[in-house]
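hey team, just a heads up i'm posting the complex here instead of the shared drive bc the drive is being weird again. everything in one block, sequence lines first with there labels, then the predicted structure for the whole assembly after. its two chains so it's a bit long, scroll down
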Amino acid sequence: MDQDVAVSDLSKDRLRAWLRILKVTRMIEAELRERMRTSWDMTLPRFDVMAALSRVSEGMKMSDLSGVLRVSNGNVTGIVDRLVTDGLVERRAVEGDRRANRVVLTPEGRVLFDEMAAVHERWVDELLSPIGAQGLETLRTRLGRIIDRLEETNG
Amino acid sequence: MDQDVAVSDLSKDRLRAWLRILKVTRMIEAELRERMRTSWDMTLPRFDVMAALSRVSEGMKMSDLSGVLRVSNGNVTGIVDRLVTDGLVERRAVEGDRRANRVVLTPEGRVLFDEMAAVHERWVDELLSPIGAQGLETLRTRLGRIIDRLEETNG
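-- predicted structure starts here --
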């Protein structure tokens, strides 16, 4: 009986911890979204696409870009169209495949992304400042264990 | 110089911690979404609306319900319509205000929600099982500090 109570308490604690993870994620995302909007008229999906492109010099196919979006049903075409209009990315034909395009950052896109990434890092540093070096390490380890377990189960 | 390096490392650690929080949130949400879909043909927005309604016996106005959704531009009307069709909630006129409606759980909705909530708690318990009682406590405290600070800043 005592053990049942303890198990049930732990389960309630895990539910509360999950709701808190969810709340932190939403609050930080809302804050970052608002700051990006007012600083550069930038959205999180467009920033995520630029971040993905910044890591690969040869660009990415549209089909690979959809995987980097936070929202699974995000409209990649619309996002890339807007970035093209703003001169931040461009579509390049893939040699030997007339139907395929690669999307690459333009030099202007690279400059803006580097600036945004540096400021974004400072914002995250500020928003997470209540957690010190030791706390970050245990947080990363614990969340890493959850991720590993989920990847094992789903792999 | 040494201090600059240390500060910069901490900032990178916070960015990595944030990306990990984001990843855990997305993975757990995806897992819960998939399990809800296969178990009850239920979506997270509909579950969230039912959860909000389960906490208030007198129901909620449509305008208050939009605040409980994870996605800010979520279509509350569509979600409630579907729940009405499934017989899980109903719209009740508000006495003295002909244009206002309150949305309340039906008895069937209450029974299903109680079942789903219990199973949902078990799933979260399982997904977060790599974290023990002590880890949950420090996780909640640390995330709580971030939330408090954000609420202070924005309040």
